[in-house]
């Protein structure tokens, strides 16, 4: 079972100052190879190519999510709120610590190319033949399955799920503050202390004392800004596009029995869509980068060019479109072929639309996020969905906005500009 | 020649808020493959295993050194100080940007094992067949050699050398602030704005207006604290020891014609002491980590164990000694052999003494640092070495302090504790 | 005429770090008795009774407005924008420094009771027989009148007016940051550096480069939060109500020839509505407080009670109403009389509605603010009002929101609660 | 007896973010007129004339000292340290909250002129006929006397005294951080969280876990810097000198039966040395400033000139001396008389020497501070005075340094410069 450490361990953390570990199981989980591996996976994938400070890892974020969860539960216990099920503390802490353990290198890009899902990998790692599994099981026979069901949002205590996964969960609160800190922008800062103080367990949910409404508004605005300033930055999207094209080309080459001069077993599993847990766990940013640096010397010109571009940050340029005009794209692809560029590799479109829905979407059952809404608790113990009371949240909840881009290798296009049609030249400012 | 950019470029930086690039040559240098490679080399080597935030790269530090140098020169130009040679601006900026371009992965560990020198590599990269060399030469035929001589401290304008290399140079000012920011400690903060405001060019040197003396004291105290809290932290030293042992074992194996299951050309050059510039440039943290993760499966048990320890952060433990007792160490080595541990790999000593000399060392000509002292300029234009005026600096300049440690694999020792002599068990708290 | 100081003067400022004075006229203005008097007037009136850190003076704010203006002009000059009229620098700096010099103690309360206007006093001080007038005139015969017309927004160069008075002027930028700093909230922080970098002079206006749109959104959201969290805080409003009642009672007593045991010439002028410039300048927070502390011993019970309450922070309590129901208020006044409370002094209503209009009000000519809208400048040099491009600003511009309160002395009401009607008791939670 | 509040009260504080009040007695003490009066007394006296941000009051500092004490005790209770006498919590909290309640306006200046002592006044207020006394007594009959004996350092539990009064007490920790925050310097920042974490109750003393030694070094260095940069700043000393001369002149005039045009009962008590508790409590910064502004129109030229100077910040200038040469001062006084200046009012000397002793003075029993030294607790539960282990503290403890100044009205001296002796002109740079 659980037992406190003789002396609490403290991690120095730039965002939360100190992170306190007081339980032996948490301490052991942090020291498993699977958790230490998160040190080798950047939290923000390729964002460091746009904001050079964004070099922090999923390790520090995972500790941060744990710490916020610990503080929330602490507050609940200190005030003796009866709606908080005290026996769920360790499940909550373990789930918050481990929720990202299934991330691989550049997850978003890889998930799109290989159709994998980091949450599923998280569960496989928790339930598989791993040190994490053994530590959890040692503490409580059922713990691995409990934690996995929290990750899958099927745990029978929804209040535990909402700690780790809701419109204002420990995960989001940590990453907004952490990503703001490391990129150096101050859009993402909000008053964490105040929010933690106004959270209340209430009938199986986490709600917010009404007096904290403005702090929540501030949090949601920070989120809005971080998405448009950082996460959706077109230069980062451009880096992601390169990444995806590298992997797509490697899959093609593998399928066509290309003999790679450099290959590792786990990479091979990845390219063939046959990843084992062990293989997945041996993938990290270092393996990906080493592959790119070696593949930069492969004979296949598309692959080597893409790899070199990624390493040397010679990214594709972009132009913004008013709307995603499919006819236009089809025409461009034709023209690309005509002038000797590869329409699949030298052209890419990108549509950014998911935020408005995600910022806050009250009252719907289905959708991309499916995360429970933020609820206010008034003095009469009545619960109200926040956009019914906050003008500002109601206003931004209705915002629906998209941005549309076309990405391309600028210097290749310039070198063939005279063969392009006039209106294409104009579109690309040539 | 040099020409300003049409529009200045701005990097968002968490330490300096904004970093301004106003000259086309600087912009091109930043975009060379050799400079972008610095993104793949951690500024603080293995320190992230002690302070998890310390994941920042030499890329951001190099930009920071450039920015501080730019600000200093800006202030000199704005005030029209006649002792500042205006024609040296670009040499200074290029040297400050490039001063660390010769760093490899985990430099301190690798330099000790392979007896290389990152400053020498910096010069080879600047003078070799590289994109950096071409950009510099394009701006001014002599520029590569000028910049290299600044790095080597032989440039005939010592004031330029002292910008990049002195007891209070742009390099140190940036790394103290940056390392403090990313580790999250606040020992390392000092009033950079104020220091920049009181610097003056004076007869071929950079001096400090006397009214800024207390700000310099504060800077030196920050430095003292950063060294003992961060840079000399015994857990970081333990990680470095593992690293060095990994490389040492790999060299031994290579020398004995061991057939590595994983090898890359540049690693092979490294292990054989035959690094070319091209080979050196292809080494980075990712290659090192990928090697370790593959070597963790090598048949040689020493190598695979060391690699696994490093990846999973199963570091050697340490005990502190009153003094470095060579007789004791010799006895321990004997005992290690006796109980079946490898004295070369399962035991290491470490002495930390270099700081006191480095904190501030007035009035000596020779020594480890050989960096010019900090000089105060009084109202009568007289220059005085700072420790003659500052009680606090005079006091700490005299401090000579060493710490002594023995590192070892704890669980191996515990498993054989009953075969150890009593006083050894006591020494290691067994 | 203007001449630079031999050596620039630097004020240490917690918000801007350093404030630089480079011109002799600015330096002399700061050292006039009229400007030094701003040290004795709190920037936020009674807000310190709600947020105890808000004890900063109009002196530091005025320096801050000057510094932001200086930085904006500096950027314009550095980049050589032709739309910036360089000869207007000194007028702009003087106007920004002096724009609040006509503030008196607790301006908002006093202006409402005595129907004065601090902007008018500012002009009278600039144009009257004062040290400020002499310093300005010494620099340029026309300067006092130029500066006054900037304050009055009638200056013939609207770009100068907009620096000091617009929807995003130096005044607002400083007070949001400063008030956030001193109260300790972090709602009010936004990225000043970034905003300063994207401002451009353009055809007689100050516009914002389109790439800075998100930074402006962030600034407006900070403003929104500061208004509802700080400036409109009901406890501060309660303190203001006490203040206004004190002055109202003193005017009544004076009109009825009450013989005050404590009086000063300037106070007498104030109560009689006959303030001279000299009299006005001798009013400050200290005089007001000293009067209150002495009047706390006056025989008139209403006055002495109000003064004691203000000094000892025994404020009126409040209840919030759904709407401002005039019939209800009239009923309450009747009931107050019936139970022996004074309806004019023991009851007050307060409606807070001005913000939504002020947050941002595009496209209207008249209104409370009458401040020019924020304009975006796109790459084709086209100017667009910001809410046409920013979803978020368009959303909040439409928000119209009011809050309604009734204030009263709680312990007096409690002591007579049994004589109140049932629904009144309910309203006041008795 | 003590009882917790139904709901804890939270003050927003810029230094500690939040200050928590959980007990009804503390809440009532804060709301007494005597404690609210601290809002009208600046924490740093005249320092705001040097650092304009230093306008914060003793009210916010007192809350801060309370909060730090609360956090220390919290940590002791949370960890269940047996050497902490739990029953002393309320005495400790009350004493920390009230320790400065006896401060008057510009205490340091007034204490020197009138030979009063703010600690003695604190005790008189706690024991006298005051609301504070009644609140304390209501909680516990003996509490007023207990709290007063803590203030007087005679309480029979020295561990309680050392919380409020030692070389590293809650008082000092708060004022260093607070004064640094409001002045805007960053010399005064140290890692409060870390220090609070390493404090331990041990055999009737508060000691520091040895691992926290470097944090203590950092705290002491901050202190050293704050003293020389802020507290001993010669411009602040100059303002204090004006203040003292104003009071001295007023006493003289009062003694010679001068008829003041402006006088208040409490001021009269002060000038005659007959202050009652009630009179003392009605003195605050506002009364002092109002008196100065009125006395600026007194007929006595010395008094009116001094008052005008203080209000308009026309301070005396200063020159620094190598040593305090009494013969030189005597000569200057003679020369002052000869040229028609008043040697008592137009000349003042100032010696600043107290710091070195105060920074840290181990091992002595008597002296200016008489505050217990800082003790380290090692792993074997041995206690050692810190300078025995810390090189840096040992070094600075030995520093003995004085600065010597002469202050004078510059423009008066300039106007008579031709009548001065040559070497005097030289001394004053005329």
Automatic annotation (TrEMBL), chains A, B, C, D:
Q: What CDD domains does the entry give?
A: HDc
Against InterPro entries, the record matches this protein to: dGTPase-like, HD/PDEase_dom, HD_assoc_2, HD_domain
Gene Ontology terms, MF aspect: dGTPase activity
Highest taxon in the source lineage: Bacteria
Q: Which Gene3D superfamilies match?
A: Hypothetical protein af1432
The record, for Pfam families, names: HD, HD_assoc_2
Annotated HD domain residues: 58-176
Gene Ontology biological process terms from the UniProt entry: dGTP catabolic process
Supply the PANTHER family for this chain: DEOXYNUCLEOSIDE TRIPHOSPHATE TRIPHOSPHOHYDROLASE (PTHR11373), DEOXYNUCLEOSIDE TRIPHOSPHATE TRIPHOSPHOHYDROLASE SAMHD1 (PTHR11373:SF4)
Name listed for the protein in its UniProt record: HD domain-containing protein
